[in-house]
């Protein structure tokens, strides 16, 4: 199976062969590979890819420069036993990444895992969410293209953040089912830190704290939620949150 890692250190693995970040031809080779893999469901125009690689100013002969970047990538991927012309196809001034059908991509695996975990939680089967939620959180926690700040990079990071928050929610439910209350509390608090204005995160953390017998800390979490909402958004907690704190106080 071809395995592609776009988070953390960019890498491509096939069997016992591995292409690391340093093998990809520098920043431009890394960016080109990540973008083509992330957008592999469509053909990417040469001009779109060139503007990604040279955002400030295109080289005078950018088509030649771009062709050289892609040629180096193809050559490196061919060392894994991949067809260099098939893996990055070129037609009508477009490029498209076309890996084998069973290729594994970490970002896609994280998205699939969180969907599976959410489905299990909705079906009231938190035990079935345990593994998928762990996979999704592990991948989504990794950094994505450190040092890059293009709009598409920020958009991908936002998607990863969303996956991470959703996966943490599912992981809390699975950990509670498994009796791992301390770890459930850590994961619930991490979700609150990622999304400090999302009330459901506070409620989940409060519920975990009550399960652990720490009602005083649950009240403090509620007070923090109320203060943040009032100071930053000018609103009060929802009826659902108020109902929960009343139950906590007794």
Q: What features would you describe in this structure?
A:
The longest helix is centred in the middle third of the chain and has 27 residues, at 151-177. The protein has helices at residues 26-38, 46-53, 62-78, 84-87, 106-122, 126-140, 151-177, 181-194, 199-211, 215-233, 239-249; strands at 2-5, 11-14, 17-19, 44-45, 88-91, 94-97, 104-105. It is an alpha+beta fold and 250 residues long. The radius of gyration is 23 Å and the shape is elongated. The protein is built from 11 helices and 7 strands. The protein has 2 domains: 2-102, Winged helix-like DNA-binding domain superfamily/Winged helix DNA-binding domain (Arc Repressor Mutant, subunit A), CATH 1.10.10.10; 108-249, Serine Threonine Protein Phosphatase 5, Tetratricopeptide repeat (Alpha Horseshoe). Helix 7 packs antiparallel against helix 8, helix 9 packs antiparallel against helix 10 and helix 10 (215-233) runs antiparallel to helix 11. A 4-stranded mixed beta sheet has the order 3-2-1-7. Strands 4-6-5 form a 3-stranded antiparallel beta sheet.
């Amino acid at each position: 199976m071809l395995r592609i890692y776009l988070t953390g250190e960019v890498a491509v693995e096939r069997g016992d062969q591995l292409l690391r970040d340093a093998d990809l031809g520098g920043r431009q080779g890394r960016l080109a590979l990540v973008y083509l893999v992330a957008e592999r469901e469509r053909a990417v125009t040469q001009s779109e890819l060139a503007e990604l690689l040279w955002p400030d100013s295109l080289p005078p002969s950018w088509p030649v420069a771009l062709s050289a970047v892609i040629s180096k990538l193809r050559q490196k991927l061919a060392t894994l036993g991949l067809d260099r012309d098939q893996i990055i196809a070129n037609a009508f001034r477009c490029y498209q990444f076309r890996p084998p059908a069973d290729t594994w991509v970490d970002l896609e695996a994280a998205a699939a895992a969180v969907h599976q975990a959410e489905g299990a939680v909705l079906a009231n089967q938190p035990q079935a969410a345990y593994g998928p939620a762990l996979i999704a959180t592990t991948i989504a926690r990794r950094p994505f293209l450190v040092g890059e700040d293009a709009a598409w990079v920020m958009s991908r990071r936002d998607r990863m953040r969303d996956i991470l928050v959703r996966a943490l929610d599912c992981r809390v439910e699975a950990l509670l089912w498994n009796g791992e209350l301390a770890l459930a509390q850590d994961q619930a608090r991490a979700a609150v830190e990622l999304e400090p204005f999302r009330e459901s995160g506070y409620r989940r953390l409060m519920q975990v704290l009550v399960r652990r017998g720490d009602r005083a800390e649950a009240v403090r979490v509620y007070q923090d939620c109320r203060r943040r909402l009032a100071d930053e958004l000018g609103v009060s907690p929802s009826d659902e949150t108020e109902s929960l704190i009343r139950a906590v106080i007794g």
